[in-house]
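Long-time lurker, first post. I've been practising inverse folding by hand and with some scripts of my own, and I keep getting stuck on stretches where the C-alpha cells seem ambiguous. Below is the full C-alpha cell string for one chain I'm working on. Before anyone asks, I'm not after the true native sequence, just a reasonable design that respects the backbone. If someone could post their per-position residues I'd love to compare against what I wrote down in my notebook.
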C-alpha cells in the first residue's frame, strides 16, 4: 500500500483551524516518517539530518515565515559501515512498499564502498529526495557543500518527527536551537544568508571547476534577489580558476547547470552575469561572444521565438529555452551543445526527448536546412 500524501489544499480543507504553514510542514513530516523508520530498522541510523539549502529553507519557513518551497530535498544519515547486499535488498523492498516502485531509486547500490557515501533517492510529495548515507569515518560529513550555509544541518532523531523538531526550533529560536544541538551551523550560514553576505565553503572538496562554481554562485545569489556576484565571491572563483583551471570541468555537466538556469524565474539575468565573467568561454567561444553582445531585450526575444525543430523538446521548458538559446551559434558548436544537453539528461528522459531519435546529432542533421 502506498503511503498517502496530503496536499496543502487537501490538508487545509480536512484540518480546520490549522494554518497553511503548519499544514505544509505536517505533510512533509508525515511523508518522511516511514523513511526515518526504515533507515533505523535496516541500517541502524540514530538520526537523519536535513542538509544545506533544505535545512536553511525549512528553518527560514519556521522562524521567518518564508515559503516552504523546494525543487529537491537533501538529507544525510550516518551509518556504521557500507550496506551489505542483503541490507540493500531489504531497504529497497521496504521503501517500495511505502512509496511505490516508481518513486524509489538506489544508486548507492552501485557506488564503490571506498567512496564512503551511498545515495538513496525517493520521490516524496512529488519532490526528489536524495538521502546520502555517510560512513562513520568519512570526514566529508562536516565539510561538504559549496557555501557556508550548505554546512548547516537540522537534526531529527529517528524516534522524532520533523514537525516536532520544527516546533521546538520555533520555540527556542535560531541561537537556542543551535545551543540545543537541533541545528548544526558551524559557519553561521543561516545568518549570512539572511544578511545576503554568503561565502564559499573553504573546506569543500572537491572544488568544482571555476565555470561550474560561477554558475552555481550566480544561481544562488539570484534566489536572494542579488544580480551581481560580490567581490569576495569573485575572488574565491578566481582562486579556483588559478589553482585548478579546468581539471574538474565536464561540458555535459556544465550543460546540466545551464538547464537549471533555464528553469529559474529569471534566466536572462543569470545568463548575462555568467557571460560578464566569461563563464561560457570554455564551453563555446561562439556562445560566449553572442551572449556577451546581447542586452536583455535581445535575449528575451530569442527565448520567446520558436526555433525550427523544437518539437523534439516541446513541453519541457528548460530544454526548450536551451534549444532556442543555441540557435545562431555556428553549426559545429550547435551539434556539440545539443550533444551536451542530451548527455546531461537522465537516461530515461534521453529516450523520451525525441521519438525514434537517440542521438542529438541526428536531430540537427534531420533539419539541417532550417537550422542553418
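-- Answer (accepted) --
I ran through it position by position. Result:
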Amino acid at each position: 500500500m502506498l503511503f498517502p500524501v496530503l496536499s496543502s489544499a487537501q490538508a487545509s480543507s480536512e484540518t480546520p483551524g490549522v494554518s497553511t504553514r503548519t499544514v505544509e510542514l505536517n505533510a512533509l513530516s508525515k511523508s518522511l516518517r516511514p523513511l526515518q523508520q526504515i533507515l533505523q530498522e535496516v541500517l541502524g541510523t540514530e538520526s537523519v539530518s536535513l542538509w544545506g539549502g533544505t535545512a536553511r529553507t525549512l528553518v527560514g519557513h519556521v522562524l521567518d515565515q518564508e515559503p516552504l518551497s523546494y525543487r529537491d530535498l537533501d538529507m544525510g544519515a550516518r551509518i556504521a559501515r557500507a550496506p551489505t547486499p542483503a541490507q540493500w535488498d531489504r531497504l529497497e523492498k521496504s521503501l517500495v512498499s511505502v512509496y511505490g516502485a516508481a518513486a524509489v531509486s538506489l544508486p548507492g547500490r552501485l557506488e564503490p564502498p571506498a567512496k564512503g557515501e551511498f545515495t538513496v533517492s525517493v520521490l516524496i510529495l512529488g519532490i526528489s529526495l536524495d538521502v546520502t548515507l555517510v560512513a562513520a569515518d568519512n570526514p566529508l560529513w562536516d565539510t561538504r557543500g559549496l557555501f557556508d550555509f550548505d554546512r548547516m544541518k537540522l537534526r531529527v532523531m529517528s524516534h522524532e518527527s520533523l514537525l516536532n523538531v520544527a516546533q521546538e526550533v520555533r520555540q527556542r529560536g535560531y541561537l537556542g536551537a543551535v545551543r540545543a544541538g537541533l541545528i548544526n551551523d558551524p559557519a553561521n550560514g543561516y545568518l549570512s544568508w539572511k544578511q545576503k553576505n554568503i561565502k564559499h565553503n573553504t573546506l569543500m572538496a572537491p572544488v568544482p571547476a571555476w565555470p561550474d562554481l560561477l554558475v552555481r554562485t550566480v544561481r544562488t545569489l539570484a534566489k536572494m534577489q542579488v544580480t551581481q556576484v560580490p567581490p569576495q565571491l569573485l575572488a574565491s572563483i578566481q582562486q579556483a580558476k588559478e589553482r585548478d583551471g579546468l581539471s574538474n570541468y565536464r561540458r555535459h555537466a556544465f550543460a546540466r547547470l545551464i538547464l537549471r538556469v533555464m528553469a529559474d524565474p529569471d534566466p536572462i539575468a543569470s545568463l548575462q552575469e555568467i557571460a560578464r565573467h566569461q563563464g561560457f568561454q570554455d564551453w563555446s567561444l561562439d556562445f560566449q561572444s553572442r551572449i556577451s553582445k546581447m542586452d536583455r531585450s535581445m535575449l528575451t526575444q530569442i527565448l520567446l521565438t520558436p526555433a525550427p525543430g523544437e518539437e523534439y523538446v516541446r513541453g519541457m521548458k528548460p530544454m526548450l529555452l536551451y534549444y532556442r538559446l543555441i540557435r545562431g551559434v555556428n553549426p559545429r558548436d550547435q551539434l556539440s551543445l545539443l550533444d551536451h544537453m542530451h548527455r546531461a539528461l537522465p537516461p530515461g528522459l534521453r529516450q523520451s526527448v525525441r521519438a525514434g531519435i537517440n542521438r542529438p546529432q541526428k536531430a540537427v542533421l534531420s533539419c539541417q536546412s532550417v537550422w542553418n
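A couple of notes from the structure itself: The domain at 8-194 is CATH 3.30.460.10 (Beta Polymerase; domain 2). The radius of gyration is 22 Å. Happy to go over any region you disagree with.
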